[in-house]
Specification:
Shape: globular
CATH architecture: 3-Layer(aba) Sandwich
CATH topology: Rossmann fold
Number of domains: 1
CATH superfamily: NAD(P)-binding Rossmann-like Domain
Number of helices: 7
Strand order of the largest sheet: 3-2-1-4-5-6-7
Number of strands: 7
């Protein structure tokens, strides 16, 4: 009998997270659809993934807190007793300078993008170590591996840059247990939040001449968690149409 494979995708009620959940379900993974507030959107995602993976389920948890991340992993393990893939996708965006950023906005942005990945990874590692296998994929941002000033997205870029260090550190420390960890940097991706102005203006900045899609990101992640990428860990992979290379 084939071993059931379980994938957690944080923030997967819509947008890029939904696309990742759908793609992994199509590859045979049972999906844990994680959401914080939008239960209706999470149910829509669940219906889509259950077409391929009927045992998939939703877990409401704010993974920007250690309690929420622990609940997500605990509820997953109670039902399935294993975690094969963890995709740390959740993360709020903030466009503000240091001067204009409020203290609580700074904390929410770092907790949502960086601390959430740390918490979920920390709580997943014991099970992955026991399994002697596991794949962790973190979602970064445009060319975040190249540190530079970000005058209007300081908190966001600081958090995403931190993810590079977290990713490479986990890749180094956990390889001996058969666990791989990589980071994917999306470019300008069309989602529910994309405006008409974005559709007109952003493609002109991209060498390939178009916005990316959630499918573009999901395809990269599907590759990374597959046996085809067995020798890939600690990598930072840009999926951005050549933007700012």
């Amino acid at each position: 009998m084939t071993q059931e494979r379980v994938a957690i995708v944080t923030g997967s009620s819509k947008g890029i997270g939904r696309g990742i959940a759908q793609r992994l379900a199509a590859d045979g993974f049972t999906i844990i659809v994680n959401y914080q507030r939008d239960a209706d959107a999470a149910q829509e995602t669940l219906a889509l993934v259950q077409a391929h993976a009927p045992r998939s389920l939703t877990v409401q948890a704010d993974v920007a807190t250690p309690e929420g991340a622990k609940r997500l992993l605990d509820e997953t393990l109670t039902v399935f007793s294993r975690v094969d893939v963890l995709v740390n996708n959740v993360g709020p965006f903030l466009v503000k300078s240091v001067f204009d950023t409020e203290i609580d906005e700074w904390r929410r942005t770092l907790d949502g993008n960086l601390s959430s990945a740390f918490y979920c990874t920390k709580y997943a590692l014991a099970t992955m170590r026991a399994q002697k296998s596991g794949h962790i994929v973190n979602l970064g941002s445009l060319n975040v591996e190249t540190t530079r000033g970000a005058p209007t997205t300081t908190a966001y870029n600081a958090a995403k840059t931190g993810l590079v260090v977290l990713t490479k550190s986990v890749a180094r420390s956990e390889a001996r247990y058969g666990i791989r960890c990589n980071l994917v940097n999306p470019g300008f991706v069309e989602t529910y939040a994309t405006t008409e102005a974005d559709r007109r203006e952003l493609p002109t900045l991209v060498p390939l001449g178009s916005l990316g899609t959630a499918t573009d990101i999901a395809e990269m992640i599907a590759f990374l968690v597959s046996p085809k990428a067995r020798y890939v860990t600690g990598a930072v992979l840009n999926v951005h149409g050549g933007l700012w290379v």
